[in-house]
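Hi R.,

Here's the input for the UFG complex you asked about:
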Amino acid sequence: MQGDLCKVDDIQKVFKLYRFEAVIHFAGLKAVGESVSKPLRYYSNNLVSTINLMEVMSKNNCKNLVFSSSATVYGQPESVPCTEDYPLHVTNPYGRTKLINEDIMRDVHHADPEWKIVLLRYFNPVGSHPSGEIGEDPMDYPNNLMPFVQQVAVGRKEVLTVFGQDYPTRDGTGIRDYIHVMDLASGHTKALDKLFTTPDIGCAVYNLGTGKGTTVLEMVAAFVKASGKEIPLKYAGRRPGDCREVYAATEKAEKELGWRAKFGIADMCRDQWNWAKKNPYGYRGHQELEVHAQKFIKSEPLSNRHWAL
Ligand code: UFG
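And here is the predicted structure with UFG in place:
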């Protein structure tokens, strides 16, 4: 079943069909650069969808929610690792939609303490399902590091541009906390367990990261090792808005959710390469992708606000 969270009727239809105990809300637009050029699209899509969903949940007396927030709400933290109580500071409309959504949820819980909410702040998700059947397939230009590396490895792009080589880090490139998507997934099931077993959880927030920082060049080297493919590099200046170094403090999730990441960057790259080599053109074949690319150039970018059941 498919629908659009920006249409209240679509959500109501689903709530008529099933009785839900809880909802995990993942839907949203997520390209930082696009959010700067199209802020209204981001505010409209990412906020209206949440408000509609919470209204329908409330009417149907379903008040357990897990929300996909982001480490982007920390901005460039003054020190690392980032703990959940760090000051929040965003630098672009996408990040602001995550922070406003968090604020909406804190306010809703404050007004009606029957709501139980877990906000999960994702660090940098990477990798694929180990089967190689489910993976990331950007509809348009791959903005994130590893989808771009993957497209270089399968020959769809010629060279990876490394943004910035003069950061005060061990090799001059930016540091992030890359987390395997399977670990991220298990973090959600732990969050649901926590909601169902903790009557006074309120509106709680947890980082989902590994607690380890990896540079861009270390990540590329790990992918080269996993794939046996060469990844040609060229260097450019720093990408506007990029932070030097961000990684998670993981103690709160370990202690309160009983969750910690199991996989390292070698596992992430192995599984991502498995997906890439089986599906070099993602979910669509090469020709379909060409047709899509032509349509895409002529039309509005596809929305990812649709969800499926
Ligand atoms: N990078 C490159 N070349 C590229 C793409 C990225 O060198 O082609 C570098 C970036 O400069 C950065 C690192 O790789 O140093 C990671 O960049 P990503 O774009 O993959 O990820 P970001 O950390 O910028 O942002 C991601 C998500 C956001 C989320 C944030 C949370 O895109 O949605 O993580 O920290 F908010």
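One thing worth noting: The first strand starts at residue 2 and ends at 4.

Cheers,
M.
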